[in-house]
Each structure stands twice: as C-alpha cells, then as structure tokens.
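Example for tutorial group B:
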C-alpha cells in the first residue's frame, strides 16, 4: 500500500464521501478534505461535514478546505439540485438533478489545491453501479479527467473511486468493514443524502424525506445490506 502518499478527499457530508473519507484514512498517513458550496438545495449537507470530521478524527486527518462555486454553477442555469424545481426525468433521459459540469469543476478545483499542497491521491465517491445516471460519475469520465489533469498540471495525480463498482448495499458493507458498527452509526446519524435537504424525518438508515431519489437509493441499499447479513432493517 502507498503509505507515504498524501490524499485529498472530495467530502460533501454525504454517505458516499463519508465512507470514502474513512477508506482514505485507513490507507494514507496524511488526508485532507475539500467541500464545495454551489447553491445546492441540500446545503444542509455542508453542516454535516465538521461533525463527521470530528467523529473520524485521528492523526492522519488534517486540513479541511471549502470552495464556493455558487456563482459559477448557479450562473450556468438552474436544475432541480440548485432550485425549487420538481424532480423529474428530462427528454434526454437524464434526471433533472444532474448539474452539468459539476464533478468536472470539482475535480479541477481539487487538483489545483492538491497541486499546491503536494497531495497526489484524489479520492471521490462517484459510482457507476447504483447511481442516478449522471454521466460525470462514470468510470470513463474519471479516467479521462485523470489524464487531462495530469497533462494540464504536469503531475501524476491518481483519482481513486473506491465506490465505482459498489452498489449502495456494498457501500454500507464497506463502512462496516472499515469501522464496524461505530462507522455505520456515524454514517447513519451524521451524513446527509436527501436532495430536498430534509433532516426532520428519522429512518433506520438516517435522516431525509424518504421519497426523493437519493433517499430511495440510500434506503434500498440499507435494506439489502441488512437482509444480506440476516438482520431485520
């Protein structure tokens, strides 16, 4: 394992990025985090970041960075992720929660920060197995971005996607493997997935509206994982 490498985790405060942060902390002696404000409806996720960082605090966990892309992403047009618009499928077959260019901008900003701080590994929680159909979450996109960033910044960044081929049930299983019930409870209690920013309704899998696509993915994954482990949800 490349124990001498330093890592930067794209950390939103959600289930996937929390699991990825724990994954990075298990591998690298120096891990920093970066988050993004972009006018998201579920901006409450940003308030979840620090309690999670405190819960995962260890010698390896270092600085946190926040980047404000509200004017940039908001100025390029509204989506159901950034405005009070009903969530639906578009004529192109994509959910209207898709924010064009979001992950590409995130990775560009993350790589620029990593360049300055000497961080080689960039970890993000995108997934092609159990996801919302976003093209910027696909493995081909991430591989292309790694090549572009390395060429454009003359570095040898490694973009790591530990959840790329895991569905949500496997993501819960990974959290359990990394940190046992303690980490599972941190994910349940502190991370946020709900697109509508609802943290008033409590479920077995955490807090959220329970009906938006993100809540449904999280809940279904939780139930499948519990069933696979012979436990009642």
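The residue assignment follows.
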């Amino acid at each position: 394992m490349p124990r001498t490498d330093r890592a930067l985790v794209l950390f939103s405060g959600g289930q996937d990025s929390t699991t990825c942060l724990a994954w990075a902390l298990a591998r690298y002696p120096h891990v920093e985090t970066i988050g993004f404000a972009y006018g998201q409806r579920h901006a409450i996720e940003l308030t979840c970041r620090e309690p999670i960082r405190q819960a995962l605090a260890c010698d390896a966990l270092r600085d946190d960075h926040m980047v404000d892309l509200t004017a940039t992403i908001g100025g390029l047009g509204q989506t159901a992720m950034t405005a009070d618009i009903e969530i639906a499928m578009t004529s192109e077959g994509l959910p209207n929660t898709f924010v064009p260019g979001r992950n590409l901008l995130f990775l560009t900003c993350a790589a620029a920060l990593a360049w300055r701080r000497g961080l080689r590994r960039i970890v993000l929680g995108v997934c092609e197995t159990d996801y919302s159909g976003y093209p910027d979450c696909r493995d081909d996109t991430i591989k292309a971005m790694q090549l572009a960033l390395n060429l454009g910044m003359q570095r040898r960044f490694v973009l790591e996607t530990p959840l790329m081929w895991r569905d949500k049930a496997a993501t819960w299983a990974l959290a359990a493997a990394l940190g046992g019930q303690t980490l599972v409870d941190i994910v349940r209690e502190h991370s946020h997935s709900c697109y509508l920013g609802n943290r008033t309704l409590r479920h077995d899998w955490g807090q959220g509206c329970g009906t938006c696509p993100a809540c449904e993915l999280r809940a279904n994954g939780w139930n499948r994982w519990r069933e696979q482990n012979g436990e009642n949800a």
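The longest helix spans residues 168-190. Compare this with the pattern of hydrophobic and polar residues in the output above.
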